[in-house]
Amino acid sequence: MNRAKLSLFVAAGAGLSLMSSGCLATRKHVANQIAPVQAQVNTVQKQSADNKQAIGDLDRNLATTDEKATEAGRQAQAAAQAAARANDAAMQAQQRADNARQLAEQNGTRLDATVNNLDNYKLVDTQKVYFKFGKSELTPEGTQALDQAIAQLGNVKNYALELEGFTDRTGNKSFNVALSERRADAVEVYLTEHNVPLRKIHVVGVGMDEANGKTRAERKEDRRVDIRVYALDLSGQAANQPMSSSTNMPATTGSNGAADRMTNTTPVATDTSMPPATAPPAPTPTTTTP
Predict the structure, then answer these.
(1) Domain range for 132
(2) Are residues 274 and 140 in the same domain?
(3) Dihedral (Cα; 116, 158, 206, 249), 10-degree rounding
(4) pLDDT value, residue 223
């Protein structure tokens, strides 16, 4: 019985030993078979890890590139907007320059017109002052006519006065010229006494009137001083009128040296250093003998 058990145990041990040996051989074989596959798997895993790393780097590079592209787009848009603003500013500057040039041309044209019209006069008023035969003293009617002329001067700027003295045909030429000058001088004195600047007055003694009145009424009409008021016309609308119809006559000198002193000269600006011309109260009418 014991021997049988011993034999059994020996047999079992031998079986186990054989089985163990067989298992070891099988595992070694399997290991040898698996080793190349495992090496390939390890290689693939390493490549996969490397690929993941490369993909991550590529993703990061792409993100950086996208950010740079976005920033470049913003910069390009900002540059385009700045260029548009600069273009608008340039157009506005050009428009201002064009406007300034047009304004300068207009001002230059107006200035040229003003300068060209500095000698352009317009007749705005006339008065006649009559004298007694052989006399150069003002009559009440004459002072009344002068007062009317002085009153009109308050409405005129840059004016010039022209005084032309006349006589009738009675007497010789030299006497009549001197008498006409004295009459014009009397009118001039009256005007200056009533705040009319002397530099605005142009005096000429004509002498005998060309009309050469023959009747008593015509000779009375000849004994006079014509007052013409001219205003400077800078608009150029009025034709350039001569300062006197007698400017082509030779200048003469009377007792006061007043003949043709300032004929056809350019008037200066309205005098501000003297009070404006004022008309005195109307004289009391008196009865005179014609």
Answers:
(1) 120-290
(2) yes
(3) -10
(4) 92
Number of structural domains the chain divides into: 2
CA distance to 45, 85, 86, 98, 141, per residue, from 95 (Å): 73, 15, 14, 5, 65
Q: Which pTM was predicted?
A: 0.46
**Last residue within a domain, chosen from 86, 116, 146:** 116
- Give the C-alpha separation, 179 to 28, whole Å: 165
C-alpha–C-alpha distance, residues 164 and 201, integer Å: 11
What's the rounded Cα separation, in Å, for the pair 175 and 171? 7
Mean of all residue pLDDT scores within the chain: 74
Q: What is the mean pLDDT of residues 280-287?
A: 44
Same domain, 18 and 141: no
Closest to 163 in 3D by CA, of 211, 223, 194, 206: 206
Residues 6 or more apart from 92 whose CB is under 8 A from it? none
132 and 7 in one domain?
no
Q: Is 126 helix (H, G, I), strand (E, B) or coil?
A: strand
Tokens 């300034």 belong to which residue? 100
Structure token pair of residue 165:
């003295």
- Say how far apart CA 75 and CA 68 lie, in whole Å: 10
Report d(CA 145, CA 130) in Å as an integer. 9
Rounded Cα distance between 155 and 158, Å, is 10
Asked if residue 282 and residue 148 are part of one domain, the reply reads yes
